Request: fold
Amino acid sequence: MRVYIETYGCTANEADSAGIRDAVLASGGAIASSPEEADVIVVNTCAVTGHTANSMLRAVSRFPGKRVLVAGCLAVAEPGRLKGYEFVDGPGSLPVVRALGLRPEAGLSIAMTGRTATIKIAEGCNGQCSYCIVRLVRGRIRSTPAPDIVEAARRAIAEGASELFLTSQDSGAYGLDTGVRLPTLIRSIASLPGNFKVRIGMMNPFSIADILPDMVDVLNHPKVYRFAHIPVQSGSDRILKLMQRPYTEQEYSAIISRLRAGVPGITFSTDYIVGFPTETEADFRLTLEDLRTNRPLKVNITRFSPRPGTPAAAMPDVLERTKKERSRMLTALHHEVTSHDLKEAVGSRRSVLVSEKGKPGTVIARDPSYNMVVIEEDLPLGTVANVEISAAKTTYLIGRRI
Reply:
């Protein structure tokens, strides 16, 4: 059997596709390099927004005459939109493996891109967000046993990984069902021999509030990036309540302040949803203020779209033109903030890890705080280099080797 796999959406989907790949290879099959060569095409879909779901429908329609198996969130969340297509009835790699008549490969699969290994540490989350369709698809938190994750990390390092990206729907919720929480897992991975860095995936603020001292400790470990992706979604407490996000903006900012005080040089990523039902101009201004206050390095901005089966889908929507305007304003402010903060790095010196190829003749590296540093040399992946920051762009730095 020759299988072509097309993956969309989050890094958890990338890890699921790795599980499908491993099962195909373990069963004597092959991974096709193009759809034309394949006996079956697996499209691993995303359904996080309405726009994304529509894009997925276009993606699965591109292979006439081929057996197409639709997997991922769209297949579970909106099967009624897939009439005429073969699709699986559950999240993760296992339903796909079964549909292909294969046996799952033993051990935790690793999605390797260059020298970066993505390892899925859990399925699902314990959030109740009123807008989220993914929680309906993925279910409650189900943590992978820590020894399995550590063994996968060991294999990845042996295969040449210099970055380990731990991913799930909510990494901060890891271990809520087993008692072995995220800091314990990270310490076990960081104790492995080898030259590598760990990047922790998205953590909801309500999932890490009770483990902040331990998170400060592990984020100071030399093998862990001083970087945290903690989504706030809105700066308005009224909107946060409607979103069923169990914290206030002040509580969120206190978490950011605690981590910033305890982890020198830490950088943050966050997510905002603009145009959530009933969001007023005053609510949006509070979101702008949150960005000015907490100054995240990276921002993911999503215009609200109602998803079937979620409580927010029944709420009064905001005009689309209003959403677009607020999205543009928030993006402009983000670029203003990051441009200012990155310019302060010019002239500094730091050690960086080359993580991926850039444009011809360049590579992309990461400093200890996960800032992107472009080096105008063609260096091997995994190289550790000392650089001086010579320039700053809107969202990245330029470094010169010293």
